[in-house]
Every structure is written in C-alpha cells, then in structure tokens.
UniProtKB/TrEMBL annotation:
Signal peptide: none annotated. Belongs to the D-isomer specific 2-hydroxyacid dehydrogenase family. GyaR subfamily. It comes from Thermococcus barossii. The keyword NAD applies. This is Glyoxylate reductase.
Length: 334
C-alpha cells in the first residue's frame, strides 16, 4: 500500500498531483477549517500531514497519529507546530521558505503605499458616489497622504522577506534601517542598509515594516512604549504575525495620533474581527494574503510535495525545520 497523506485544505493542484504519483492522498475540500475533532479522527492512519498556520499540531495530534512521520507546513512560519515534541517523537517538520518571499515583500509595499496615500479611503469615496455628490472635480486638501520617495524605512526582521522589502526600498530612494538578532554585513554593503537598535530605528523611521517570526522574544514586541517612540507621521506595516503587535496599544496609537497609520495583513487571532480597529480610517486591512499570487501559492504546493517525496525516498527534505530529528530517526516510511 502507498503511504497516506492528509492535506487539511485544498492547496493548488500541482502539489496534489505530484503527491498522488507516490501516495494515497486525501484533501479536506471544505473552505472552512477542518474541525479539531475531525482532524484527530482523520490522522489515525496517516503517514504524512500537510497543514496550515491556523491549525495547532501538538502532542494531542501526534498521539492520535501513531503512523505520522512528517508534517509539511504550507507556510514559512511554523509556530503552529510543537516542533520540540515532533522532534522528540522522530517526526520531521518542513516549511515553505523562499518561494513566497517576493510575493510577500511586494504585498508589504501594497500596504505601505495604500496606507501612505489613503487609497482605501479614496476608493470608498469614489465608488460610493460621494465624489459625484460633492460636485467638485478636485480639491487641494482632499486625501492628503505621506510622501514615500526619499524617506526612511525601518525593517524589523532582516531575513529573506525583510531583505526583499529593503531591495524594493532602494527603488524609492529610501534610507534603509534594519534590526535583527544578528548583523548582516554583506547585506548592509549590498543594500546600503544600516543596523540600528530597535528604539533608535523606531524613532528615526517614517515607515516601519515588521518581518520577524513569532517567538517568545518577538511576542508583542511592538506595544505602547514602542509605538510612542515612533514619529506621529510614521506608518506601521505588519506582514509578520499578528501577535508581534499589541492590538489594544495599536488601536490607541491610531486613535490618539501617536502614529499616522497602519497596514495589516496579520492579526492576533485568525480569522479575526475587531470592531474598534476595523472602524478606523487610518488603517488598511487584508485577510492574511501576503503570499496570495498564483506563482507563490503554486511554488508553496510544489515545495510541500518535494519535501514529502524526498522523505519517502529516504532523503533529507529540502526545507527541514528540525534538523535535530536526524539524530532520532532516518527519513523514510517503515
């Protein structure tokens, strides 16, 4: 019998077809998230699991899945998986870096520009008929936004996506500041970027882009103190994880003018609704679609399949997260 793979949401067909050549594949086709009790039931006879960020993969899941040998996360992040527990049990964990870097970096700029130039407000004004009712073709004080070209951008988290955001900033003639766990001299030289302590970056930046993973250190790293350090004309863009920002503090900052605006693609809980935050005009909102291009999502699906197929063939998966697992179990299905 072929090993069995459960895919908890319908990924692009290219990845599914690759897997079907080697595995018996089941796909949860419902647009709604797979219920926890259904997941626990379906993993009973599963050898490989393709999962999403919103699904908690922990000891309870592992207990329910005695045959499970590899979890392939359809995302760059993997904070939804108890990696330490997986490693202890000899379960491989993979993710999908690189293939969504450019799409996500592009989307950071979508949020940045839309917020700076008040695009969503202007769109609503136009399509609602309010422009026509005003009876004025143009007014010098309508929808005044903030200049981008030649300004200073501060990027918190300078991995693949953070660096890709910086490369785009060069096209806008921007001064590039960054903060990360370690300095990156080669990238500094390439991009003309300057490493700054977090507080200094926040004080000096006109635009702050969050591109860090969610860890114990980054949980709510942007709170009331940090937001008060920012310029009142500054804009915050979050393409990282929602829990990197204290939402209550952000709402206060946007309402009281500590900062000028925010562009958000991620939230403390997802799916999400926050009446007070969502009612504000100086925030641009998207439902976690940073990687939502045909190319990126198909690339993610292919990488998921390549990881699981490599494991089946007794090879180390290309984007193995927990390399310590190699000391516990060799790749391959028994």
């Amino acid at each position: 019998m072929k090993p069995r793979v459960l895919i908890t949401r319908a990924i692009p067909e290219n990845g599914i077809e690759m897997l079907r050549e080697h595995f018996e594949v089941e796909v949860w086709e419902d647009e709604h998230e797979i219920p926890r009790e259904v997941l626990l039931r379906k993993v009973k006879n599963v050898d490989a699991l393709v999962t999403m960020l919103s699904e908690r993969i922990d000891a309870e899941v592992f207990d329910a899945a005695p045959r499970l040998r590899i979890v392939a996360n359809y995302a760059v992040g993997y904070d939804n998986i108890d990696v330490e527990e997986a490693t202890r049990r000899g379960i491989y964990v993979t993710n999908t870096p690189d293939v969504l870097t450019d799409a996500t970096a592009d989307f950071a700029w979508v949020l940045l520009l839309a917020t700076a130039r008040r695009l969503i407000e202007a769109d609503r004004f136009t399509r609602s008929g309010e422009w026509k009712r005003k009876g004025v073709a143009w007014h010098p004080r309508w929808f005044l936004g903030y200049d981008v070209y030649g300004k200073t951008i501060g990027i918190i988290g300078f991995g693949r996506i953070g660096q890709a955001v910086a490369r785009r900033a060069r096209g806008f003639g921007m001064k590039i500041l960054y903060n990360s766990k370690s300095r990156k001299p080669e990238v500094e030289k390439e991009l003309g970027a300057e490493f700054k302590p977090l507080d200094e970056l926040l004080k000096k930046s006109d635009f702050v882009v969050l591109a860090v993973p969610l860890t114990k250190e980054t949980y709510r790293m942007i709170g009331e103190r940090e937001l008060k350090l920012m310029k009142p004309t500054a804009i915050l863009v979050n393409i990282a994880r929602g829990k990197v920002v204290d939402t209550s503090a952000l709402v206060k900052a946007l309402k009281e003018g500590w900062i000028a605006g925010a562009g958000l693609d991620v939230y403390e809980e997802e799916p999400y609704y926050h009446e007070e935050l969502f009612s504000l005009k100086n925030v641009v909102l998207a439902p976690h679609i940073g990687s939502a291009t045909f190319g990126a999502r198909e690339g993610m699906a292919e990488l998921v399949a390549r990881n699981i197929i490599a494991f089946k063939n007794g090879e180390v998966p290309p984007t193995l997260v927990n390399r310590e697992v190699l000391n516990v179990r060799k790749p391959g299905f028994e």
